[in-house]
Design goal:
20 strands, 10 helices, alpha+beta, single chain, 356 residues, 3-stranded antiparallel β-sheet
Length: 356
């Protein structure tokens, strides 16, 4: 495995559970969160799972989401521990930004009511104190979508890798070389410190770094970095009690997540390129001019940003078996945590030569 974000760790764990000998490469495997520098997509993530509220009803994207949402309860049960109290916090509320969007949500609810989607009308939104932007067009509530704390998840996976005897190499992979021995194709991994590791199968989950690893092998993978910023606010409890908030509230593409009774996380922006801009944070807080008083007067206590990997002219994620022994699972963009279980199962199927 090359890449130790949530996709790399999850897939390595699943392979190790199937008694595969796994080696995971990532120079930042034990890297601690630093709000002053760009984080990888997993560490910067808010951990939102928008699986069932996905707007399609068929196709690969929907199948991946549905499979992951089916798998997450069992994954959480296996990964959680006293040190890593992993949970899927629910529900997720999504507010409509127009009458047209409200109509679409109602159609979605009718198609997916059996998956825990229900309508939220204007009155119920006001009564539950979710009405943070006006005018109020209603929305939906998903009782099975929500959020997983990404830091707890990464730590839980780290412990699970250790328990399943996965070897972690905290070195940067600089290149991959094809090597044929006795007519069996094998791979040579070169690291920055000059070491070489020979493996039968390589799975690349290295986000934007995947491109530079694959180009020398003749593969052109188009990926674009997208910066995403998030903030933590301390609010005045005289205005609002965040204990009554849903696990996630989505409004105009912005996620609001209560951390405790007076702290809330807000994010994440979508900014093409490597460098975030302060204007996007300001716009996110203003909420198109409709931010309520409790957000306008809140204090920013923390800021951070991360870089996501977005495929160009391809749907996210990129899941491809490039040739025997070379598998690519990257470009999850904003859904790495959501799609981790289905991605791991896809990799296992590719390794066992099953079709997906």
């Amino acid at each position: 495995m090359i890449g130790g974000g949530v996709i790399g760790r999850s897939t390595a764990w699943r392979l190790a559970k199937d008694d595969e000998e796994v080696m995971l490469f990532d120079p930042l495997f034990d890297h601690q969160k630093n709000s002053q520098k760009a984080l990888n997509g997993s560490r910067a993530s808010l951990g939102v799972l928008m699986g069932y509220v996905f707007r399609r009803f068929n196709g690969r994207s929907w199948r991946l989401r549905k499979e992951s949402m089916d798998l997450w309860p069992q994954w959480i049960k296996e990964l959680k521990s006293e040190n890593n109290p992993l949970h899927l916090n629910t529900p997720l509320v999504q507010l409509a930004s127009s009458e047209k969007e409200a109509e679409f949500m109602n159609k979605l609810i009718k198609k997916k009511s059996h998956l825990g989607l229900q309508e939220l009308n204007s009155l119920s939104i006001k009564e539950n104190n979710f009405n943070i932007i006006k005018p109020n067009y209603g929305g939906l509530i998903s009782y099975h979508d929500g959020r997983i704390d990404p830091n707890i998840l990464l730590n839980a996976l780290k412990d699970a890798l250790k328990d399943n005897k996965v070897i972690t190499i905290q070195e940067k992979v600089t290149s991959i070389e094809r090597k044929s021995i006795n007519s069996v194709k094998q791979w040579l991994i070169h690291t920055k410190d000059g070491k070489k590791y020979e493996r039968d199968i390589i799975v690349i989950c290295a986000a934007n770094s995947s491109k530079e690893l694959l180009e020398p092998l003749g593969y052109k993978i188009e990926l674009s970095p997208v910066a995403g910023q998030a903030i933590e606010l301390e609010v005045n409890q005289n205005y609002i009690d965040l204990k009554n908030f849903p696990a996630v509230l989505v409004n105009h593409g912005t996620n609001l997540i209560p951390k405790n009774k007076n702290r809330i996380l807000i994010g994440a922006t979508i900014e093409p390129g490597n460098q975030p801009k302060s204007q996007f944070i300001d716009e996110m807080i203003r909420m198109e001019g409709f931010a309520p008083t409790w957000i306008q007067e809140a204090t920013v206590v923390k800021k951070w940003y991360g870089l996501r990997s977005r495929p160009i002219n391809k749907p996210a994620p990129i899941l491809e078996k490039l040739e025997p022994g070379l598998i690519l699972a990257t470009g999850h963009y904003r859904n790495g945590i959501l799609l981790a279980p289905a991605t791991a199962e896809w990799v296992i199927n590719m390794i066992s030569k099953k079709s997906y």
